[in-house]
User: Which sequence fits this backbone?
């Protein structure tokens, strides 16, 4: 009994959309960042589902790479957010007002 | 058993030679900066320049590559398009390193990580121009983006860190779209190789709906990187916030790299869908040219003005892309070459004219620049003329070429909008020249008198003139480089 | 039949032995200086102190989270590599050595820049040590 591939794709699209909305409506940089991570994981789900659909491993390999890239992004992102926080004592993007948003 | 253990797939490292050299140099410079007790920025600079030179030599040798068209399991393309794009990128990086070295020395800040970061960014950029697989395009895009986020924050000023945060959040957002596009392309065709995707789509075996979604998502991802409207929000803030030397580097290099990959992906893997994606690129080009040119008029800060001007230039390159012909590729390459030289030089002048730090970047402080430094005012005028597309500069030839490519491909409408946008744009370029030559100085800023960075700014100025007067010098070369093999 | 599970048992025993040995060795090696504050049970019975302006971790923990990547991303690739080790052969081995070498460069960089010092304030500008390893990983 195989779950139809479409179910996974719909779940993935839903997660991706939730992540996008999170990026657009949340104001805390860390939460925005977590939303981006959610999007990346939605993509991973789609990749693995497609990988099974095509019966090839390329998609899973790509999912590995995207996990590593996400980890690297976390590091750079945290570093930047921490250094903004150190200077402003806030991680709210609305407080980032030196430059027009 | 042992024999099996020792056998390995054929490995042709030649076509990623430039990247290997850059990676080696980057690691050495990184460790040199961290392990040596007495840090000598000059030594790091020279080592980095040596690395760039080595990579350039290897790139040139690839012009006559006789091996397979793609190597390393179809990951890397060995064609002349990649060679030319790499050489532009390496040249930009070398000049930016000289400018940046001077910038941090002048501020008295010790930034040993500037050099390895520029090398790693350049590595990502050169890799993306040769990537023949969407996985590699994504990885290279991330290498260059992550390094750029950090380069942007390489300053004590709060504006730099805030600009970096904005760049990071929006950049990560766009990366997610890009990756989703890659997933869709994989889902549509079962492969991430650009050539396999093209074959599958041409043979109608691929899922067309998924493929169209892939094109749209990939265009969003690239649109962010090249700063096309409506994905341009980050550009002015990041360009203004970043240290000026870094702005010079990323404004010139990022656009070349991202457009090179954009061209390759659209023109090879999605070539069967040309009729579907040209209207998208078309719309982007029109919006980008108009919005970039109009918003630049309202700016009072020279860095923000140049940022909007770079947005407008992305629109002109998109005109060449939308032609979707070999002529279009050639014209886009020439435009990128002219643009890279011009914007690098312009930000270089801004860096030299604005005193020690970043205090004097308002347009007002350019009033009467010709009294204080005739040389800088002259160089700036040359760059502004080139951006406005006035002969005898490279910018003029570049604009003519992209418009001709668009008209030849039947897109005369977009060419018309382009001509109108460049007329509007000419206004604010000329305004800065009027300020520099016809007004009394408002502020008494002493321009930086150093010789070496001036030379670094003079090189792009010479190129701008040279390509403007004798475009034939490179056009033939670019024509041979504008055939995308797949 | 059951002997097929022997490697798993051996692996489990080795993992257990390693964990126990690590704990024992570190308890023998570490300095032992108890203070009343250290001996107090965590969040039990002591006055809960209000942290200023909401709950916040010291920035140090974020730095630690960032350094974690040096050791984290290696595993993602090591595991599939180990599964296909025989078929990948010498080529795979060389590739993996190069990869681990690069991650090691990041480790060296973090160490030299003072990213591993817990007590000292991070030397020079704060954002520096997190930079290198991100690039490696990317």
Assistant:
């Amino acid at each position: 009994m195989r779950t139809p591939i479409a179910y996974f794709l719909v779940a993935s699209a839903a997660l991706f959309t939730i992540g996008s909305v999170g990026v657009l409506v949340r104001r805390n940089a860390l939460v925005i960042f977590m939303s981006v991570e959610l999007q990346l994981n939605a993509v991973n789900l789609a990749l693995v589902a497609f990988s099974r659909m095509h019966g090839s491993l390329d998609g899973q390999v790509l999912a590995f790479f995207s996990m590593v890239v996400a980890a690297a992004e976390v590091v750079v992102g945290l570093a930047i957010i921490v250094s903004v926080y150190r200077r402003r004592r806030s991680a709210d993007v609305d407080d980032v007002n030196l430059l027009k948003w | 058993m042992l024999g099996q253990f020792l056998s390995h797939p054929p490995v042709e490292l030649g076509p990623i030679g430039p990247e290997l050299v850059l990676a080696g140099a980057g690691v050495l410079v990184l460790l040199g900066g961290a392990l040596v007790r007495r840090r000598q920025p000059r030594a790091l600079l020279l080592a980095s320049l040596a690395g760039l030179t080595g990579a350039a030599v290897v790139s040139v040798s690839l012009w006559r590559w006789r091996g397979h068209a793609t190597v390393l399991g179809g990951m890397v393309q060995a064609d002349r398009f990649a060679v030319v794009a790499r050489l532009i990128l390496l040249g930009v990086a070398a000049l930016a390193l000289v400018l940046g070295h001077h910038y941090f020395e002048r501020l008295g800040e010790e930034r040993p990580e500037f050099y390895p970061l520029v090398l790693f960014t350049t590595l990502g950029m050169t890799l993306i121009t040769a990537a023949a697989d969407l996985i590699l395009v994504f990885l290279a895009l991330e290498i260059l983006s992550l390094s750029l986020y950090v380069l942007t924050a390489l300053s004590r000023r709060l504006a730099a860190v805030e600009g970096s945060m904005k760049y990071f959040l929006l950049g990560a957002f766009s990366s997610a779209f890009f990756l989703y596009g890659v997933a869709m392309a994989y889902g549509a065709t079962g492969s991430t190789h650009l050539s396999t995707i093209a074959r599958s789509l041409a043979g109608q075996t691929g899922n067309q709906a998924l493929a169209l979604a892939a094109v749209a998502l990939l265009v969003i991802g690239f649109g962010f990187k090249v700063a096309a409207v409506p994905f341009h929000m980050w550009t002015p803030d990041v360009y203004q916030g970043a240290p000026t030397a870094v702005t010079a580097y990323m404004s010139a290099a990022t656009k070349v790299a991202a457009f090179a990959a954009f061209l390759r992906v659209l023109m090879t893997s999605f070539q069967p869908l040309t009729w579907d994606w040209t209207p998208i690129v078309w719309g982007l080009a029109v919006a980008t040219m108009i919005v970039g040119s109009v918003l630049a008029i309202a700016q009072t800060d020279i860095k923000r003005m140049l940022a909007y001007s770079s947005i407008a230039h992305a629109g002109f390159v998109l005109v060449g892309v939308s032609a979707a012909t070999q002529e279009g590729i050639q014209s886009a390459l020439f435009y990128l070459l002219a643009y890279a030289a011009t914007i690098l030089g312009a930000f270089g002048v801004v860096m030299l004219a604005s005193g020690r730090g970043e205090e004097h970047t308002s347009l007002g402080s350019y009033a009467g620049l010709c009294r204080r430094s005739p040389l800088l005012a002259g160089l700036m005028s040359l760059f502004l003329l080139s951006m406005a597309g006035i002969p005898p500069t490279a910018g003029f030839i570049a604009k003519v070429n992209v418009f001709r490519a668009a008209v030849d491909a039947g897109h005369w409408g977009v060419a018309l909008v382009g001509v109108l946008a460049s007329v509007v744009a000419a206004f604010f370029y000329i305004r800065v020249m009027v300020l520099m030559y016809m007004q009394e100085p408002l502020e008494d800023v002493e321009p930086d008198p150093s010789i070496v960075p001036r030379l670094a700014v003079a090189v792009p100025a010479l190129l701008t003139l040279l390509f403007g007067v004798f475009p034939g010098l490179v056009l033939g070369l670019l024509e041979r480089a504008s055939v995308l093999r797949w | 039949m059951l002997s097929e599970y022997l490697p798993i048992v051996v692996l489990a025993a080795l993992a257990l032995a390693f964990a126990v040995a690590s704990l024992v060795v570190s308890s023998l090696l570490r300095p032992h200086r108890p203070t009343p504050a250290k001996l107090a049970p965590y969040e039990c019975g002591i006055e809960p102190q209000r942290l200023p302006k909401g709950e916040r971790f010291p920035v140090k923990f974020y730095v630690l989270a960032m350094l974690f990547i040096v050791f984290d991303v290696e595993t993602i690739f090591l595991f599939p590599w180990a599964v296909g080790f025989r078929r990948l052969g010498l080529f795979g081995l060389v590739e993996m050595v190069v990869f681990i070498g690069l991650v090691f460069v990041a480790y060296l960089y973090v160490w030299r820049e003072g990213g591993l010092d817990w007590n000292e304030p991070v030397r020079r500008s704060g954002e520096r040590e997190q930079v290198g390893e991100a690039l490696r990983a990317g």
Chain A touches chain B through 45 residues (CB under 8 Å). The CA atoms of residues 30 and 90 of chain A lie 11 Å apart. Chain A has a mean pLDDT of 85. DSSP finds three helices and no strands in chain A.
